[in-house]
Amino acid sequence: MNEHDWLAERFEEYRAHLRAVAYRMLGSLAEADEAVQDAWLRLGRSEADGIENLGGWLITVVARVCLNMLQSRKVRSEEPVGVHMPDPVISREDGVGPEHEVLLADSVGLALQIVLDTLPPAERLAFVLHDMFDLPFDEIAPMVGRSPTAARQLASRARRRVRGAAVPTPDPDLTRQRAVVEAFFAAGRSGDFEALVAVLDPDVVLRSDGGARRPAASFVRRGATAVARTALAFAVPSAILHPALVNGTAGVVVTAGGRLFSVMGFTVTRGKIVEIDVVADPERLSRLDLSVLND
User: Fold this and answer.
1) Is residue 113 part of a domain?
2) pTM of the predicted model as reported, rounded to 2 decimal places
3) Which residues of the chain register pLDDT less than 50?
4) Can you state the angle between helices 54-75 and 29-45, rounded to 10 degrees?
């Protein structure tokens, strides 16, 4: 085995872990893959023989690439984007496959990814690397150009923001989650407003991201009454629902007229739907890998 093949083999050992770091940092599967690929290219241009801790070196590179991406987003923040949802991770209903196990470790659902998207870049990096991947602050500090103490403070601020957002914890029973989601769609298709309200938490939040091509599908609704009315208004009787796991919890892939219409993730807590997160942006939907549902 030559040096290039040996290096490629070692890199593949870390790829899933690096992709998980990048996804938590960016909330975008495509950008996460770009960051991982960038790390591979940089590794190829480096003196690999001088790298003592390859895993740590790769995480540092990926983290810095992600930080640059986040800072670039911030520079472009004056552009109107409306409601923006993180990319959903879609798995078969019978369980998360090995290709997604690392990506979804620590129950990184859409609800938490949404909160992470609100954090300033440096805070997000410090929180993700320390709280989710157990990196010490003396390793995080150089990535953000701060002292270890300052890096600790960044993570602490981020932690307070995450706790303040009160990210809901899904019920552990996927069968129960699925039953609640099915009841939601059954009520919607029959036009039963009261039945819809019955499966929704009083403070339920519905977020929908239609992107630039479907601006009417970008909105946020809060409260059981408002969400139930919206569900009835947007019901598509001809739509076909394909049960799936969306970031590890019960969800559906919706097709209509043979085309992908939306991906819907649900957070069910104590038997009630507390969050509904919808990606309906045609451009982003076209980039999703749904092949796993056909395996």
Assistant:
1) no
2) 0.86
3) 78-80
4) 130
